[in-house]
Each structure stands twice: as C-alpha cells, then as structure tokens.
Amino acid sequence: MMDREYDVVVIGAGVGGLCAAVLLSHWGYKTLVVESTDRLGGRCSTEEVEGFKLSTGAVALHRGGAFEEIYREVGAKLDLVDMPHQFYRIGSIEGENYEMPAKGAIPAMLDIANSLETNRAKLLGHMAKEVAVGKVMNFFGRGVRGEEKADDITFRDWLAKYTENEMAHKTFDSMVCNVTSYHTYEVTASEMFALFAGMGTYAALGISPQGNEENMKSLAKGIIIEKNGGDIWVGCPAKRIIVKNGVAKGIIIEKNGAEIKIPSRVVISNVGPKNTVQLVGAESLDKDYLDLVSKLNPVGMILVHVASDRPLCLEDGELGGALLIGLRRLTSAFPLTNFSRDLAPIGKHLLYCVGSPPSYLETVNLDEELEQTTLDLKDQFPEYDKSGKIIKFEVVFQDLPQPGRVRIPRETPVENLFNVGDGVQELGSGGTSAAAESAREVAGRVRKSIKL
Length: 452
Ligand SMILES: Cc1cc2nc3c(=O)[nH]c(=O)nc-3n(C[C@H](O)[C@H](O)[C@H](O)COP(=O)(O)OP(=O)(O)OC[C@H]3O[C@@H](n4cnc5c(N)ncnc54)[C@H](O)[C@@H]3O)c2cc1C
Description:
The protein is α/β, with parallel strands linked by helices. The chain has three domains: 6-81 and 211-295 and 402-449, FAD/NAD(P)-binding domain (3-Layer(bba) Sandwich); 104-199, Guanine Nucleotide Dissociation Inhibitor, domain 1, CATH 1.10.405; 297-398, Alpha-Beta Complex (Polyamine Oxidase, Chain A, domain 2). Helices cover 34% and strands 24% of the residues. A hairpin with a 4-residue loop joins strand 15 and strand 16. Helix 1 (15-26) packs parallel to helix 15. The protein binds flavin-adenine dinucleotide. Flavin-adenine dinucleotide binds next to helix 1, strand 2, strand 5, strand 14 and strand 18.
C-alpha cells in the first residue's frame, strides 16, 4: 500500500464521520478523516466567543444510544454532566418553571393544557375544549412504529382529531421542533409515533462540561485512530470524490494550497447527501438518485447564546433544560453554566436556546428571526433586559430527511461510497444519536464487505 493510500477515507469530522472512522480504525482499517474547518465535531463542536465556550449546534447529548455505545466500544472517554430534570414553561405565564414528572410528561402537560383551557373558557364564558388525554395516550402507549407513507397526515392533523385545545397543540409543537427541527404541521404522524416509540420524548441527556469539541477530540484521539495508521487532517476540504467505472476510488483534497489525490477502497461522506452529490459529480450518478436528492430543502434551526451577569432561567442552579411552550420562535432553553462553570468567564452565566422559524418551506429572513427571538427572550426571562446580551445568533440550515417526502438511503449508486450523518437518519431517530447510528451501520457494512 502506498504511503498515502487508505482503506477508508471519511469526508467530514462531524459526529457521523468521526464515529464511522473510529469504529473502522478500531477494527484495523487504515482510515483518514479530512475536515474542511479547523474544528472537530461539525454541529456538535465548540466555538470560543468573548471567553464563552459556545456549542455550534447540539448541547443535550443522548445517553444510552449509539453515540455513547461507540465511545464504550472503542474505549474513549465521554465526559457528560447528566441532566436529571426537565422543566417546562408556558408562554403566557412569565417566568414560571414547572418540573416535568419523571414519567408521563405528555399526559401531565395535556392535563395542564386542559386546566389552562378551562380557566380561559371560564373567563370568556365559553365551554372548555378539553383534550381526550386517555385517547391520545392510548395511541402513543401502543408504541406504534408506523411505516412512512407518502400520503400520511401531519402530526398536527392527527392531534386535531382529538383536540382543538391550542395549548395542547403548542406543547407538542415545541417538543417536535426540539427533536426534529420541524413543526407539527410539517412532520408526519408516522414519524412522530416512531420517534416517541424509539427515543421516548425525553431520553436521558447530558451536557459536555468542557464543550462538545473536547468529547469529539477524545473520540478522535491518536491512540484510537493512529494505532492502525489512521489520520485526521483538519483545514483540508475534499474537492472531489474519485469514481471509476461506478466504483469510489478515493478523493481529491486541498492541503496547504495544493490538490492531493488520496486513493482509498471506501469513501464515507459526512457532508450531507447534497454535498456528496456535488463532490461526485452528476455524471457518475443516475437520474432517479439526482432527482431524489434535489428534493431536499434545508431546514433551519435557530441557535442563540445569551450571556448575562445573573442567571436567566432555572435561577437556582437546577441541572435541567426547559421546554418553552407557545412562544414566537424559541422552543427550549438550557442554562449551561448550571452544569459547568468552565463554559463562561468567571462570574458570567450562559444560556443556550433553540427554536424554529415558521416553516422550512419559506425563505428565512434573518433580521425577522432575530427580532422575534429577542422578543421571546424579553418576555420569558425578566432578567434578560437588565443583564442579558446575545453573544451569538444563528439560523443553522440542515439537510435533514423530510418526513413523508424525502429520505435518502446511506448507500449511493456509486459502489463503496456511503453517506453518514443525520442527513441519512432513519425514521424515528434524530440528532447526534441518529448520526452515530448511521455511522455504526455503515461501518458494519464496510467491515462485512471489505476484507483486511
Ligand atoms: C441548533 C441545533 C441544536 C441541536 N441540538 C441538538 C441536541 O441538543 N442534541 C442532539 O443530539 N442533536 C442536536 N442537534 C443535531 C446535531 O447537532 C446533529 O444531528 C449532529 O451534530 C450532526 O452530525 P453529522 O454527523 O450529520 O455531521 P455534521 O455536524 O453535519 O458535520 C459535517 C462535517 O463535515 C465538514 N465538511 C463539510 N464539507 C466538507 C468538505 N468538502 N470536506 C471536508 N469536510 C467537510 C463540516 O465542516 C462538518 O464538520 C442540533 C442541531 C442544531 C443545528
């Protein structure tokens, strides 16, 4: 084998890319990861701003799924502070945190939606439109793992069969946005049943106390990847995937201003199906596949980091996150400095919130999103106006499968070229777990078909 020849090259050092690379390296494959930025982790990394360690995307990492299992399998350290509590806040009731019961969070919230509706109805002299909690829960309780159907109704339409209670709809919308980045009127009912059955609404979660990149570095550590001749090159964008006679043969990268050819037996792409198509070139792919990938519409997720002198949310230092219900944009808040003081300069607090623009099918106006997000912060967190400051606001666009419309397989029409990452997640999965699951499945496939 030539010096610069690898069994496997992985494009992109996101969760999916690193997980696939670590497993293959662990099993003896000579593996190279190339990453275009100078950071490891992609949307699960860390960016330093004004002395704060900010997440580039994920904060609540799932315990007990493929992500954690891969760390265990390769002997890497996953440093997480557990999040034992989950809270929720309801838009119109400023500043109140309610703890979610350990079990039965959904029926508990539906009961609250009922009592709010009853109070509102009393005030307006109307009949309360109560949710048939038992009926709704019965359906979830059966753990339906539905098949995805093109003509499936949306989750909102499904819920509307049981209730018109707006608070119940808003509760589910916040949950669904957090887990999928889509609204209840965009996600199919079968996707939601699969999600609730597969992950549970609130899986066990943990926060990286030194920022996500430290955990990514631990996964990538030389002793794991380099023992079998592997490497990670950052600041090295892949420019092209080499395909000959329908088979992937390696990649062309840019390193120190020069283009270098890296031959390999397998190419794994972690850059999302659309970017993979661009790296391969349309001439090596069939029309059906190109048509399918071209249907993907990026879905935006709002990410806002707020610095403050005093805690803004879960002010007593609770180790929890808050589901935000019924706001303009924001759907959850995590007071990160409650978990780790190392994420902020001394004496400062860091709140991380996420939310969703109104629809992934509409053009996102960043000024409008910032304005609506700021109004949410002002309304929800009374201290925000006194000492809060947005230190980073972003709408992160993601090429995710579109429930009921587009789901891209991990294998591609090119032999020995695979996609990993949440762009090729399965029905009922999401986030870092989904990215890790895809990596484990693809790495397993490579292990079966490519002999050392
Ligand atoms: C705002 C927000 C909040 C989130 N919150 C959570 C959460 O709390 N919990 C959770 O589990 N998940 C969460 N997620 C989802 C989670 O971040 C993603 O599912 C996961 O990080 C995706 O990983 P990935 O494997 O798809 O790779 P990505 O993160 O997409 O990484 C791809 C990598 O490829 C690199 N790359 C791109 N092009 C090239 C090229 N040509 N050559 C080389 N490298 C290239 C990129 O720089 C990047 O590093 C959140 C996402 C967002 C946006």
